[in-house]
Amino acid sequence: MPGVILENLSGRKLFVLVSILLIGQFICFLIGGLIAPTPSSADTILATKCHDAGNNSDKWFYVRGKGKCNTIEDLKLKYSDTETQKHMANHIVFAFQIPTPRDNMVLDYSRWQQNLIGVLMFEVVYNPEAEMEPRTVISMDARLGYRNYGDAEDDWKYYASSFETRTLDCSIEVKKAGHHYNCSIVPLFELGSLHHDYYVINIRLPVDSDRKLNHGLGFVTDMWLVAINQNGGYTKVWMSMKVTFFPIIVAIMIWSWNRIHQLSRSPVLLEYMLLFLGCALTFLNMPLELFTLLFDLPFMLLFGDIRQGIFYAALLSFWLVFAGEHLMLQDEQKNHLRMYWKHLSGVAIGCISLFIFDLCERGIQLRNPFYSIWVTDLGTHLALTFIILAGISAALYFFFLSYMIWQVFTNISVKRATLPNMSNVRRLHYEGIIYRFKFLMLATLLCAAMTVIGFILDQISEGRWKWDEDLYLEYTSAVHTGVYGMWNIYIFALIVLYSPSHKQWPSEADLASTTEIEFNEISSLTSFSRKAALD
Amino acid sequence: MCAKLRLLGIGMALARRECLHSAILFFFLLLGFFLDSAHANWRTLGLTGINPAGAAIYLREKCTRPKHFGEKLSSICSYNDNILQAVANGAKMGIEECQHQFSMSRWNCSTFANTTSVFGGVTDIRSRETAYVFAISSAGVAYSVTKACSKGELNECSCDHKVHKRKPRRGNWQWGGCSEDINFGEKFSRTFVDSEENSESAFGLMNIHNNEAGRRIIRSQMKRICKCHGMSGSCNVRVCWRKLPTFRAIGDVLMQRYEGASYVRVVERRQKDEEKRKKRGKKLRAANPIFKQPNRTELVFLDPSPDYCERNETLGILGTHGRQCVQGSPRVDGCSILCCGRGYQTKIREVEENCNCKFFWCCKVKCETCHSKKEEHFCN
Question: Which residues form the Wntless GOLD domain (chain A) (predicted)?
Answer without folding.
Answer: 48-230
